[in-house]
Amino acid sequence: MIRWQNLWRFIPLFGLMMLLLTGCGDDTISALKPRGPVARDQMFLMELSFGIMIAVVVVVFAIYLYVLVRFRKKKGEKDIIPKQVEGSHTLEIIWTVIPIILLLVLAVPTVQYTFKVLEDHRENKDALTVKVTAHAFWWQFEYPSLGISTAQDLVIPTGKKIAFELTASDVKHSFWVPSLGGKMDTNPGLTNVYYLEADDADTFLGKCAELCGASHTLMDFKVKSMEPAQFDQWVAKMKAPAAIPADAKAGEQIFKDNCLSCHAVNAQGLGAGPNLNGFASREKIAGIMPHNDESLKQWIADPQSVKPGAKMPAFSEGAPNVAKALKDQEINDLVKYLNSLKLPQ
């Protein structure tokens, strides 16, 4: 019993730990550090609502403490029943009008920003369109006006409106880049239009924000914002054919025999799996693994061990859902070929 009574002593320690932990995290996946105009507007609304809530809490606790002190039973006083007050038009008007005012303070700018964003987007006829298709558990990005497509790594120019046309191929997912703006659902058979813009060149982290299956937490992607000139160079590199070295030809044939039915390796190709054009220039494998030979071999051998529920079949003997068991040398040759799919320097 004494042990439980002494737990209150740890409350200040827990409070200090919570305060310290609020400083942890990655700046490129924080909605509290906006890096674009949409995110800044949303941040203003969050600050406004938080300020209103804090003001309400302060006033309520101030009244509570005042009543607690003012009307407490003082030493030496006899038990008395205070004057009973039933109904007060003045108080009822006050506690009705004040919440209405607070709601208006929050609702008016919220509606204004909503219509402002919609109006700004209607006027931006030169916005770059990116078609986003969410799959279990990866992301496909198409640039219709540029004639290219890619996966997992989304590249955008800075200072330009990006019109995202969002859909899904299987179940509901949700597209979210916290540093650039709030989330938007991707629904099978429907298309949601969503606009974002990046202030400066950087790499931001994106996630699926809708519970979608076994590997929901692993459905990550990257958003790379580049200066317009650098973005144009990236587009040109994506359209240039990859130069396959002679020692990767064996792996290329293995890829054609086993992988080409799902994975494209050219600028515009689409398939059941991610487009691997420029694959060797990506920072991550499957959006989450470090890009090295060991990670790539693990992914090819048994994708389910990395992303449970992934639709890619395994190529290692003994793994579940094996499409065709490849020998170790064949997997090594395939890895060498995939690592040759680099964007031109």
Automatic annotation (TrEMBL):
Domain Cytochrome c: 246-342
Molecular functions per Gene Ontology: copper ion binding; cytochrome-c oxidase activity; heme binding; oxidoreductase activity
Keyword Electron transport: yes
Swiss-Prot/TrEMBL cofactor(s): Cu cation
EC id: 7.1.1.9
A GO BP entry: ATP synthesis coupled electron transport
Transmembrane stretches, start-end: 49-69, 90-115
Catalytic activities: 4 Fe(II)-[cytochrome c] + O2 + 8 H(+)(in) = 4 Fe(III)-[cytochrome c] + 2 H2O + 4 H(+)(out)
Chief location of this protein within or outside the cell: membrane
Localization terms from the record: Cell membrane; Membrane
Cofactor note: Binds a copper A center.
Residues of the Cytochrome oxidase subunit II transmembrane region profile domain: 23-121
PROSITE patterns per UniProt: COX2, COX2_CUA, COX2_TM, CYTC, PROKAR_LIPOPROTEIN
Enzyme class: translocase
Keywords, sorted A to Z: Copper, Electron transport, Heme, Iron, Membrane, Metal-binding, Oxidoreductase, Respiratory chain, Translocase, Transmembrane, Transmembrane helix, Transport
Membrane topology designation: Multi-pass membrane protein
GO cellular component: plasma membrane
NCBIfam families in the record: CoxB
Matching PANTHER family: CYTOCHROME C OXIDASE SUBUNIT 2, CYTOCHROME C OXIDASE, SUBUNIT II
Protein's UniProt name: Cytochrome c oxidase subunit 2
Lineage per the UniProt record: Bacteria, Bacillati, Bacillota, Bacilli, Bacillales
